[in-house]
Amino acid sequence: MSDLRSKFLEVYSVLKSELLNDPAFEFTDVSRQWVDRMLNYNVPGGKLNRGLSVIDSLKLLKDGRELTDDEIFHASALGWCIEWLQAYFLVLDDIMDSSHTRRGQPCWFRLPKIGMIAVNDGILLRNHIPRVLKKHFRGKPYYVNLLDLFNEVEFQTAHGQLIDLITTHEGEKDLSKYSLALHRRIVQYKTAYYSFYLPVACALLMAGEDLESHVDVKNILIEMGTYFQVQDDYLDCFGDPEVIGKVGTDIQDFKCSWLVVKALELSNEEQKKLLHTNYGKDDQTCIEKVKELYKVLDIQGVFLEYESSSYQKLTKSIESHSSKAVQAVLKSFLAKIYKRQK
């Protein structure tokens, strides 16, 4: 795996070099250095799971045979397009949320002399994707489908972000708006499409498949993405900060978290009042009161039950798929996230 990761990172260097020398724009030394630093700070710093899973998925779709160097390069290039998309979302998301840290370092816009130039940097990150696709995929029969796919997933993610923002808006804190259906909608559009469906869809296109005939695969991956986010919500409250690498803030941030939605469902009137009074306040006493209520309602037990039934349901859906290769792709995704601690 470390060999694959180093090959993947080599492709990043190739793509970055091409973008910094793109003939469509006359770079100055200063602008080239800016983009170089901006890319290194924002694109390759995460776990790279989304990008690497394009290569893994393609290999499984080819029945596990070794991929050619050309296939590895192209799968890596698509993987990096997803990482670029992620970087674009995160740079802008951090500004919208007034966040301070990302991946253990200050958010890009928080750095000296960056500030709101980061908005334009986000736009640049978004514009790099079609440049990469044009350079490396223009001659491929699935080129237009790739463009469509990235455009559609971006459209879905931006609208998921919109629902999230207008629901958790400061000054309009109203817990009664929160429901399982709303949580699911936010998660599906904000996270599941680009994190789960997009990598597999890229691999399917590279394998010569038609996405229209794989709607069932999309549905399973969206379901998986929902389960992944519920885990995230759970870890935000009950995970070990040492393991997950951050201190959870969903309670004080008034997030439409799966935990609070479940707590609202299970609470009596008095407990509901406690939630309404304390949820969304950046005050340690209020946060502890919410966490204490979660314990009283045994939200941990409710989550473990949800996790078990989701796993069984997903496994059943995967095993009913006609293609063993597609089953292998979906099972590998599920194995990576089931019972994760971070």
Question: How big a fraction of the residues is strand?
Answer: under 5%
Order of helices and strands: HHHHEEHHHHHHHHHH
Largest sheet: 2 strands, antiparallel
Radius of gyration: 21 Å
The CA-CA distance between the termini, in Å, is: 19 Å
Shape: globular
- Classify the secondary structure makeup into a structural class: mainly alpha
Mean pLDDT: 93
Helical element count?
A: 14
Attribute tags:
globular, 71% helix, mainly alpha, 342 residues, two-stranded antiparallel sheet
Question: Would you kindly provide a brief summary of this structure?
Answer:
The chain is mostly helical and 342 residues long. The chain has helices at 2-20, 29-42, 49-61, 69-96, 117-137, 143-167, 180-206, 215-238, 241-244, 258-266, 269-278, 284-296, 299-319, 324-337; strands spanning 101-102, 105-106. Helix content is 71%, strand content 1%.
